[in-house]
C-alpha cells in the first residue's frame, strides 16, 4: 500500500496549527521512519495516516483511493503503540486471535494464522502464557503479531521500543526490520531516536515544528543534510557549528565566491577532524588550535580543541600522549561531513559535493 499526503494541515479549534501543508509519499512495501524531537508532529502524522485524526485541510490517499474521511477500521491499518495494550486475561494465542475473532473469522483459520504469526515473531513457545508472564520484548512481539493478524494494508508503530532497555532495543529494532522484510507490509515507524531510524529505515522523514525538514534515505540525510537543524539532529556526537569568520580565509580557495559571501556558519562533524599529518584524504587547508582535553571511553576518543575562541570536539584524532593540556594541535578536515550554512540555517555547500536536498 502506497500512502500519499497532499497539502495536509491540522489545527486544533481552528487556532493552533500543528502540521503545516505536508506533501509526501510513502512507497509500497518500504519501512519509513518519522523522526524528530518531542512535539514535532510525528505521532500526529501517524494518527492522520491511521484515521484516528482527520486533517483540517488536504487529502490522504492509500494508493489511488481517497481515504481522507475514512476511519481506522475502514483503512485496514495495524497499529502498535508505546503501551502494547495486550489483554491481560487472555493468553498470547488469544491476544493474537482477537482481531480475527472480532471479524468473525472461522476458529480454525484464526488458530492457523495466529500460529503462523507466532512463528514469524519467535513466540511459538509462549502461546499459553499471559502477558504478565512475558518480558517487554516478548510483549512487543505479541503486539506486532496481533497487528499483523488481519493482514493490514499498512503497519503503524508509535515508539514501540521506548519501554525496553538499551540492549533489548537494539535487538528488537533488528527484529522489526526482519519482520517487515518478511511480510513486505508498508510500515511507518515513529521514533525520536536517530540510531533506530538510521539502522532500520528505507527512508527517514525528519519533522520539526510541524514541517518536513528533509525526507530521503538515512545515508543521504547524514551526508547531505538540508539545513542546520537536520545536521545537528542527525549524528552523535552533535556537529560543531563555528562562525565562518574564524576560517573564512582558508576556505577562500575552495568555495565559490558567491557561496562564501552568503555563508555565515561552518558545520563540521566531529569525526571529520583529523591530525594534520594523517594520510587520510582531506581538504587542502590546515588549522591549529589549543588542546583543551582528551578523553578515551573504551573505543571512543573525545578531543576538545580551542579553535579561534570556539570549543570544538574531534573524535577522529588518535595520537599517543594527547592527555597533556595546553598543547598546540594541528589538524585538517576530511571532505565528508563539512558544510556551510547561510543566516537562515539552510546548508548551501557541501565539501564532499553531495547534492543537498532542501524541503522548503
Describe what this molecule looks like in 3D:
The chain has helices spanning 42-50, 72-75, 92-102, 107-120, 136-148, 166-183, 194-200, 218-223, 228-233, 248-251, 257-262; strands at residues 3-12, 16-26, 31-35, 57-62, 65-66, 77-80, 154-158, 186-191, 203-208, 211-216, 240-243, 265-268, 273-275, 287-297, 300-307, 310-314, 328-333, 338-341, 347-350. A six-stranded mixed β-sheet has the order 6-7-8-3-9-10, with helices on both faces. Strands 13-17-14-15-16 form a five-stranded antiparallel β-sheet, with no helix packed on it. With 360 residues, the chain is an alpha+beta fold. The longest helix is centred in the middle third of the chain and has 18 residues, at 166-183.
What's a concise summary of this model?
The chain is built from eleven helices and 19 strands. It has helices at residues 42-50, 72-75, 92-102, 107-120, 136-148, 166-183, 194-200, 218-223, 228-233, 248-251, 257-262; strands spanning 3-12, 16-26, 31-35, 57-62, 65-66, 77-80, 154-158, 186-191, 203-208, 211-216, 240-243, 265-268, 273-275, 287-297, 300-307, 310-314, 328-333, 338-341, 347-350.
Amino acid at each position: 500500500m502506497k500512502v500519499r499526503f497532499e497539502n495536509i494541515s491540522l489545527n486544533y479549534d481552528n487556532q493552533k496549527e500543528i502540521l503545516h501543508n505536508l506533501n509526501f509519499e510513502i512507497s509500497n512495501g518500504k519501512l519509513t521512519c518519522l523522526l524528530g524531537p518531542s512535539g514535532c508532529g510525528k505521532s500526529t502524522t501517524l494518527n492522520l495516516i491511521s484515521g484516528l485524526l482527520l486533517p483540517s485541510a488536504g487529502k490522504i490517499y492509500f494508493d489511488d483511493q481517497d481515504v481522507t474521511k475514512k476511519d481506522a477500521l475502514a483503512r485496514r491499518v495495524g497499529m502498535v503503540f508505546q503501551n502494547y495494550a495486550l489483554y491481560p486475561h487472555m493468553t498470547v494465542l488469544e491476544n493474537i486471535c482477537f482481531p480475527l475473532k472480532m471479524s468473525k473469522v472461522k476458529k480454525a483459520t484464526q488458530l492457523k494464522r495466529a500460529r503462523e504469526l507466532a512463528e514469524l515473531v519467535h513466540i511459538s513457545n509462549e502461546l499459553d502464557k499471559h502477558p504478565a508472564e512475558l518480558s517487554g520484548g516478548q510483549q512487543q512481539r505479541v503486539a506486532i503479531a496481533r497487528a499483523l493478524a488481519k493482514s493490514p494494508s499498512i503497519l503503524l508503530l508509535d515508539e514501540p521500543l521506548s519501554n525496553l532497555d538499551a540492549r533489548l532495543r537494539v535487538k528488537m529494532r533488528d527484529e522489526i526490520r526482519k519482520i517487515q522484510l518478511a511480510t513486505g507490509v508498508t510500515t511507518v515507524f515513529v521514533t525520536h531516536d536517530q540510531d533506530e531510524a538510521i539502522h532500520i529505515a528505507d527512508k527517514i522523514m525528519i519533522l520539526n515544528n510541524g514541517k518536513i525538514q528533509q525526507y530521503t534515505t538515512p545515508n543521504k540525510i547524514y551526508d547531505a543534510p538540508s539545513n542546520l537543524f537536520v545536521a545537528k539532529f542527525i549524528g552523535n556526537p552533535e556537529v560543531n557549528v563555528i562562525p565562518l569568520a574564524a576560517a573564512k580565509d582558508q576556505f577562500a580557495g575552495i568555495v565559490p565566491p558567491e557561496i562564501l559571501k552568503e555563508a555565515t556558519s561552518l558545520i563540521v562533524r566531529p569525526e571529520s577532524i583529523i591530525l594534520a599529518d594523517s594520510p587520510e584524504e582531506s581538504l587542502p587547508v590546515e588549522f591549529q588550535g589549543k588542546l583543551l582535553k582528551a578523553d578515551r571511553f573504551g573505543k571512543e576518543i573525545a578531543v576538545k580543541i580551542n579553535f579561534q575562541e570556539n570549543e570544538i570536539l574531534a573524535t577522529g584524532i588518535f595520537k599517543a600522549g594527547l592527555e597533556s593540556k595546553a598543547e598546540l594541535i594541528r589538524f585538517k578536515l576530511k571532505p565528508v561531513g563539512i558544510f556551510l550554512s547561510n543566516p537562515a540555517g539552510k546548508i548551501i555547500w557541501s565539501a564532499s559535493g553531495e547534492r543537498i536536498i532542501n524541503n522548503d
